[in-house]
Amino acid sequence: MKLPFSEKFLWNLYKFMKLTSDALNELASISSHSFFTRIGRWNYPNYFAIKKLEEDKLGKERFNRLIKYLKYNGYLYVRKDKNKNAIILTPKGAKKILEIRRKIEGLTKRKDGKWQMVIFDIPEDIRARRDYFRAGLKRLKYQKLQQSIWICPYDVLKDTDELIKYLKLDSFARLLLIEEIKI
Length: 183
What we know:
By secondary structure, this protein is an alpha+beta fold.
């Protein structure tokens, strides 16, 4: 499948972030706790590493236009973090990556016929995250059973879990797998 240029970059950014995150998690599991604390939590990849990789492919001017476009559309921003620039995905950028993932992988119904259920109780003081969460559930093709109970016949467990972790809603949401449902 051929993706638009900006979507391809966001997908590559996601893969790079996932690779970096997986490598750090593996390193943390075999290293001492103090070492992991010293290197800190790298939630976002180093801007210069991505810039180097992409500039080699695109050229400096085209890469800068791409970053400007993605920032303008609210998908990411660049900020200084300990004297280095870091690329930060916005919630809108994360949503876009989920849409891209859907295009690439497609949704498949669960083979066992079970349904994925999400139950959540998100406080009013983090309403914006709750709204992003609901929008994410809609993109994953969840259906609202009640205001805070959503169900889905598709195999979206991994995506839903990533959405919950990304929005830091672990203590407010529960995932269930149910045998049957009568709507």
